[in-house]
Amino acid sequence: MQTEISCGPAFAFAEIAVPPGGSVRVEAGAMAMMRGDVSTTTSTSGGFLKGLRRSLGGASFFVNDFTSQRGGLVGVAGTLPGDLVQTSVAGGTALLVQSGCWLASDPTVDVDSKWGGSKGLFSGAGLVLLRCSGNGDILLSSYGAIRSFTLAPGEPITLESGHVVAFDESVQYRIRKAGGWKSTILGGGGIVTEFTGPGRVWMQTRSATDLVDWLRSRLPSNSGNNEASS
Fold first, then answer.
1. Where are the beta strands (DSSP E) in 30-127?
2. Model confidence at 180, in pLDDT bands (50, 70, 90)?
3. What is the pLDDT of residue 224?
4. pLDDT band at residue 169, thresholds of 50, 70 and 90?
5. How far apart are CA 183 and CA 188, in angstroms?
6. InterPro entries in the record, alphabetically (predicted)?
7. Entry pTM
8. CA distance 58 to 18
9. Of the candidates 77, 92, 88, which has an alpha carbon nearest to the alpha carbon of residue 27?
10. pLDDT in tens, 94-141
């Protein structure tokens, strides 16, 4: 997948070149621009159950396949202000992607869901991850800038769960509270994810969960509106 990324890291925009006879798979609603000979096909990419599993992982039930007979461009952008990064999977490797961070990929990449088990129940970032496997390139989006790490075997790193973008399936992970109940309640600590290498981990420098909490704290409450109307 030949991609040119511009306007990052705050408002990253990717122009994906679709070669003659080629195609690219894009998250529904992510297309911002098309140039040249490009046509669109919308499907569940694997049937109803696969579309349902993918939607449980935070992606759309449907995906769009952009194809071209003579060559063209497809411009894509993430939902929130932030960065884009391109990576790949090959052979038996797979990438686990956090809810809402998969943006586009080669049609040879299989995008499904992966149940996180009971350890995902308290992550605050979704029970089901997207599992990207096969052979090809993947475009990831973030809220804020993207920072990547390559962990050696046994090397740990801990991220606040809302900052996780993606990680190799070879990376082990577990979810826990950031501290004791006292630090969680008084210090604003939340849920963190501990990763242990080998493999790659991507994080985003902002948390969409924190953004929602910030907006909620500044919106007028329903009780206040009811009192004003009475």
1. 31-36, 39-43, 63-67, 72-76, 84-89, 94-97, 102-105, 109-115
2. low
3. 52
4. very high
5. 7
6. AIM24, AIM24_sf, Trp_RNA-bd_attenuator-like_dom
7. 0.81
8. 26
9. 77
10. 999 987 899 999 999 998 876 554 444 334 444 468 889 999 999 999
**CA 87/CA 12 separation, integer angstroms:** 16
Name which of 123, 205, 200 is nearest 157 in CA terms.
Answer: 200
How buried is residue 144: exposed, middle or buried, by Cβ count under 10 Å (0-12/13-18/19+)? buried
pLDDT in tens, 186-223: 445 578 899 999 999 999 999 888 888 888 888 887 65
Q: Judge: domain 2-212, CATH 3.60.160.10.
A: yes
What six digits make up the tokens of 69? 């007979």
Which is nearest to 132 in space by CA: 108, 162, 157? 108
Q: How far is CA 101 from CA 43, 98, 221, in A?
A: 20, 6, 31
